[in-house]
Design brief:
about 20% strand; Coprogen_oxidase_aer; globular; coproporphyrinogen oxidase activity; Coproporphyrinogen III oxidase; alpha+beta; about 40% helix
């Protein structure tokens, strides 16, 4: 069996593996988040095993990364294209699909200095055949107690993980920063054929100026998608309102008593079935349709130096959250010989920290800050 070297993982893998297998819980759900039952049937449904779902999802992630990058480059309209930094099974463009289906690897794609996207990253990570330590197995057992499943995770069990994330920092302060990810974690018994898997993910906006109709549509689209999979009164105890709350709880700067942005959705520990696979794929395929219309509407708006400076101040809060509170980043940087570029790939390109900055009374900047301190329901 192959033991994984965490310092070689991208920030996506670090966030996911910490969430699923360590006590650090990088992207763990807030304490108020219930662990979800399997949607649409048992995790042991013979028609779609956890391994089958994992393989289907990894193929989706590989294809979706390529599709997203094409759409972002088209929207950006500049000569700048996404760079490619592959490792492991994805080190070369011509790596065989057989290699990618049996070995670990990933691709970090980055665009910088574009017309629309000042800096953006789209990162794919697929981890295969890791071996759970006693501590990590115990952590999963603690999270698994509320879930239905035949496999009780043990030390020595084999785990695999796959994740796709995107962070887009825009040049124009009237276009919000967009962040999203989807991920799966699979554990197979070392002694028999039993297995269990979970999904996690989310999507959120960090605006610099409140254009209410844009933010409202973003949240309404998310609600419509969530409601189609988890209608009112569903037995799985999941709803759009809950996932919005979980997102607000995670992306919060307690020292500032403010949220990083206007939120979106966040979910974790969602048992992997064909039904939840459909939900998670819908989350990912909805990323660009939810964000690109905002780019088309506001990406060419004129802005002042003062408005750009305000964007940089808010980006400072974004970086502040990453370094002080994002448990995945903290964990990744704490490892010996960390892959720093991968861990910090979501950082904004330019930031500002003004001492004791207070927005003018009655200004649009003050209106944003009030919303960040007291989040609202954008769907009503």
């Amino acid at each position: 069996m192959m033991f994984l070297s965490l310092p070689k993982l991208s920030s996506v893998a670090i966030c996911f593996l910490v969430a699923a297998t360590t006590k650090v819980d990088a992207f763990a759900a807030p304490k108020s988040m219930p662990v979800s039952k399997a949607v649409g049937g048992s995790i042991n449904d013979a028609s779609s095993t956890p391994q089958d779902i994992f393989e289907e999802f990894t193929k989706f992630l590989i294809n979706h990364q390529t599709d997203m990058i094409s759409k972002i480059e088209q929207a950006d309209g500049s000569e700048n294209a996404f760079s490619r930094d592959g490792w492991g099974a994805f080190a070369n463009d011509n790596d065989s699909s057989d290699e990618q289906q049996t070995k670990s690897g990933g691709i970090t794609r980055v665009i910088q200095g574009g017309n629309v996207v000042e800096k953006g990253a789209c990162s794919l990570t697929i981890i295969r055949n890791g071996v759970l330590t006693a501590d990590r197995a115990a952590t999963i057992q603690g999270r698994q107690q509320q879930q239905e499943g035949d496999l009780v995770v043990q030390e020595g069990d084999i785990y695999s993980a796959a994740a796709l994330s995107v962070v887009l920092h825009t040049r124009n302060p009237f276009v919000p920063t967009f962040r999203s990810d989807v991920r799966i974690f699979l554990v197979k018994s070392a002694s028999d054929d039993s297995a269990v898997a979970w999904f996690g993910g989310g999507s959120d906006l960090t605006p610099y100026y409140l254009i209410d109709e844009d933010i409202s549509k973003f949240h309404k689209d998310l609600k419509q998608m969530c409601d189609s999979h988890f209608p009112e009164g569903n037995e799985y105890n999941l709803s759009h309102a809950q996932m919005k709350q979980f997102c607000d709880e995670y992306f919060y700067l307690p020292a500032r008593s403010e949220h990083r942005g206007t939120g979106g959705i966040f979910f974790d520990d969602l048992s992997a079935t064909k039904a939840t696979l459909s939900f998670v794929e819908d989350v990912a395929t909805g990323w660009m349709p939810s964000w690109l219309p905002i780019v088309e509407k506001n990406g060419s708006k004129e802005f002042t130096e003062e408005q750009k400076h305000w964007q940089c101040l808010r980006r400072g809060r974004y970086l502040e959250f990453n370094l002080l509170y994002d448990r995945g980043v903290k964990f990744g940087l704490a490892n010996a010989n960390p892959r720093v570029e991968g861990v910090m790939v979501s950082a904004p390109p330019k930031i500002a920290f003004d001492y004791n900055h207070v927005p003018a009374e009655g200004s649009e900047e003050e209106r944003l800050l009030k919303i960040l301190k007291e989040p609202k329901d954008w769907t009503v």
